[in-house]
Amino acid sequence: MNANPVLLQNKYARIIELYAKDKEITLDEALDFFYNSETYRLMREGVSDMHCMSDEYLVEELKEERIQYQ
Fold first, then answer.
1. Which label site among 4, 32, 38, 50 has the fewest CB atoms less than 10 Å from its CB?
2. How many whole angstroms separate alpha carbon 41 and alpha carbon 27?
3. What is the Cα–Cα distance from 40 to 59, expressed in whole angstroms?
4. What count of other Cβ atoms lies within 10 Å of the Cβ of residue 26?
5. How far is residue 38's CA from residue 67's CA, in Å, rounded to a whole number?
6. What is the DSSP letter of 25?
7. Residue 24 to residues 7, 8, 18, 51: CA-CA distances in angstroms?
8. CA dihedral 8, 55, 27, 25 (to 10 degrees)
9. How is residue 3 annotated by DSSP?
10. pLDDT of the chain along its 70 residues, tens only?
């Protein structure tokens, strides 16, 4: 399924902001992590309709992903 590019960019921004707030990091750090994450790749490619998941769910996915790579 292809998402509207503008809506997808807005979703990315919300996720990055929530992630930064949750991890108490800067937006730049959150942005860098997000755009290099597997979660972003799956969302961008529309795999398993990841882009349809809630923002909170996707932030949890990012947190799990970060734990795996530490």
1. 4
2. 19
3. 11
4. 10
5. 13
6. -
7. 25, 24, 10, 24
8. -160
9. P
10. 577 889 999 999 999 999 999 999 999 999 999 999 999 999 988 887 888 999 999 999 999 998 887 6
| Owner of token pair 């860098």 | 32
CA gyration radius, the chain: 11
Reading the block at residue 10, the tokens are 């807005």
Q: Do residues 30 and 36 touch, judged by C-beta distance below 8 A?
A: no
Judged by DSSP in three states, 11 sits in helix
Q: What is the pTM of this model?
A: 0.90
Measured CA to CA in angstroms, residue 45 lies from 20, 24, 38 at distances of 23, 28, 11
Q: How far from 2 is each of 14, 16, 21, 63, CA to CA, in Å?
A: 19, 21, 29, 25
Q: Tell me the one-letter amino acid at 26.
A: T
